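Researcher: Please predict.
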Amino acid sequence: MRLPLLLFAAVAAMIVGAWSWLGAPVPMPPSPLEPGERLFCVSYAPFRGAQNPLDPATRISTAQIEDDLARLANVAGCVRTYSIDHGLDQIAGLAAKHGLKVIQGLWLSNNRSYNRKQIETVIALADRYPAVIQSVVVGNEVLLRGEMSGSDLAATIRQVRAAVKVPVTYADVW
C-alpha cells in the first residue's frame, strides 16, 4: 500500500513541478521600436474579461473603446477591426479623436440579412469617416469557415468596392 502512495506522490509532484515550470513568468524582450517610434497598425478587438464576441448580448461601452484607443494612439497610428458588432461601429468616430486611422473590418457569415446589415453599416461608416477609414477588409476568414462561396464573396467585395472610396480587400489564412 505504501509503494502506490509513494508513486502517486512522486508523479503528482512531477506534474505540479512541470506545470509550475511551464507557467513561470517569462521576461519580455526589449521592444524592437526606437523610443518614440510607433507601429504602423495593430489588430484591435476590445473584448475584456468575460466579454465574448460570440455572445450577441455583449456590448462594448464607448468609455472602454475610448480608453483603449487613447492607449493605442501612443504606440500605433492605426487599428484594424473585424466587424461592427457589439458596439464596434463606434471605433472610427472615436479613433478620429485620437488621430488614429482605421482598417475597417466587415464580418460576413452564411446569414444574408446579417451580411446586408454589416455591408450597409460599413459603407455608411466609410462615407461618414473618409479621413479615418483608410481601407475595408471584407469577410475575415469567411472562406476558411465555409460560410460563403468564393463567388458570393467576390460579388460582395465588388459591391463594397463600388460603394466606398477606399481600397477594399479580403483577409483569410493560406
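Model: The longest strand covers residues 101-107.
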